[in-house]
Write a structure and sequence with these properties.
Helix content is 37%, strand content 20%. The chain is an alpha/beta fold and 339 residues long. The strands form 2 sheets. A 7-stranded parallel beta sheet has the order 1-4-6-7-8-9-10. A 3-stranded mixed beta sheet has the order 2-3-5. A hairpin with a 4-residue loop joins strand 2 and strand 3.
Length: 339
């Protein structure tokens, strides 16, 4: 009951990449970088296991960024000539690569870290990938001329990699779709169908992570404009409840999402964020258990998965480790109280 996991990413060791940054530069190169990525993956698995995390991830140690870590393995994208583009409906701007031709995978994307992780943990393993809508909101287009068409082209590639990950022994494949909190109408008109294409044929558990973003200034400032209640999910949860995705991940602790909205996800497992990634204050196990208790009023206990509000990539490593420990201890406390 109340199995624990993380949204996906953990901070990278300072010997591997610049610390405390969302877009860190690698500090190694060539064969040293390849080996360092796996060393860091092993470390992240150990940190999660020691903290009592039940469904572990590779910590996204092999990726510079959660979206671009996938795009780097795709033909038809020009990384050499980046352009500035508004991200998440112009919430902030970034220099992004451009789609210049038909999209095709160059080969496996996350096969190395997935097989390595599978060989080094006996716990359930989750691998995350960006969702189709979030990808097209993070890249410029000079080929398809149609956002939806390009999204489905990416969904096809995601499905190829997802099927391979399942064959690698991955138990949960999660698609990260923060764009689902921005383009509400598109979620039901084509966003979920693009996700369905991405999960086509999978037998392992599938999840979608929706959130209000990392604790970076642009996101914090945006959230300050959303009012006393964040009701965006009211528009998208019914469509997600009717989807073929098995689990929906979202933030809970320190968010202004009315928890009664979780009832709209009837029939889905709900991964609740009980750890705040936009705050360096470490939660107590009691606070984690208290968040779980609040959610129990709206989600059956057998449907609850406990996680983090978002990825922990830009966070100080010592704080992230302490928060992992709180996650494991808080869920254990909740099992004793509500099991």
């Amino acid at each position: 009951m109340f199995p624990t996991t993380i949204a996906g990413s953990l901070p990278k060791p300072s010997w591997l990449a610049e610390p405390d940054k969302l877009w860190p530069q690698w500090r190694l190169s060539g064969a040293d970088l390849a080996a360092g990525k796996l060393d860091a993956t092993l470390l992240s698995l150990k940190l999660q296991e020691d903290a009592g995390v039940d469904i572990v991830t590779d910590g996204e140690q092999s990726r510079q960024h959660f979206v671009h870590g996938f795009l780097e393995f795709v033909d038809g994208i020009d990384f050499a000539n980046k352009v500035e583009m508004g991200i998440r409906n112009d919430r902030y701007k970034a220099m992004v690569p451009t789609v210049t031709g038909a999209l095709n995978l160059k080969g496996r994307v996350h096969g190395t870290e997935a097989t390595f992780s599978r060989a080094h943990t006996t716990r359930k393993l989750k691998i995350t990938m960006p969702g189709p809508m979030t990808i097209i909101d993070t890249i410029a287009d000079r080929h398809y001329g149609d956002r939806v068409k390009m999204a489905f082209a990416f969904a096809e590639l995601l499905n190829q990699e997802a099927r391979a990950l399942e064959a690698d022994g991955v138990d949960v494949i999660q698609f990260d779709e923060p764009a689902f909190n921005v383009y509400m109408k598109e979620v039901s008109t084509w966003g979920i169908e693009a996700l369905h294409r991405a999960i086509d044929g999978l037998k392992c558990k599938t999840a979608v992570h929706i959130c209000y973003g990392y604790g970076i200034k642009a996101n914090v400032d945006w959230k300050a404009t959303l009012g006393g209640e964040w009701r965006q999910y009211e528009e998208t949860f019914p469509a997600l409840a009717a989807s073929r995705i098995a689990e929906v991940s979202l933030e809970c602790i320190h968010s202004k999402v009315p928890l009664e909205l979780l009832a709209l996800l009837n029939g889905k497992d709900v991964q609740i964020g009980v750890i705040d990634v936009a705050n360096d204050t470490v939660e107590s196990p009691e606070e984690v258990a208290a968040t779980i208790e609040k959610v129990l009023k709206h989600v059956p206990k057998e449907r609850i998965v406990c996680g983090t509000n978002c990825g922990m990539a830009p966070m100080r490593r010592d704080i992230a480790v302490a928060k992992l420990t709180a996650l494991g201890q808080g869920a254990a406390q909740a099992r004793k109280r509500f099991g």
